Amino acid sequence: MKTPPNPGDRRLVYRTELSLDSDTAVSREIVEAISDAADCDPVELPPFQHVVDVDALNALFSAETLDRTGRRLCFTFEYANYDVSVFGDGTIEVYR
What we know:
Blueprint: E1 12-17, H1 26-38, H2 54-60, H3 63-69, E2 74-79, E3 82-87, E4 91-95
Antiparallel strand pairs: 1-4, 2-3, 3-4
């Protein structure tokens, strides 16, 4: 199992894989993963763009960037009382 930086005493509550080759924005897939973890509709969550620069996140996990970095990438942030880690191989892990 991958471990995000400093998960503290939080526990893994949800894990999924991004569809890196799809036309769906990475940011949208992340919000959907968090809503699955929270067992709620995505519109019930706070506005994602208030926490993360959505355009930068989508660019960071674009096929071009991932090919250039060799998929050695981990982006961790807090959103809606969850710690979220997104890895270059497409794994999303949600901690609570």
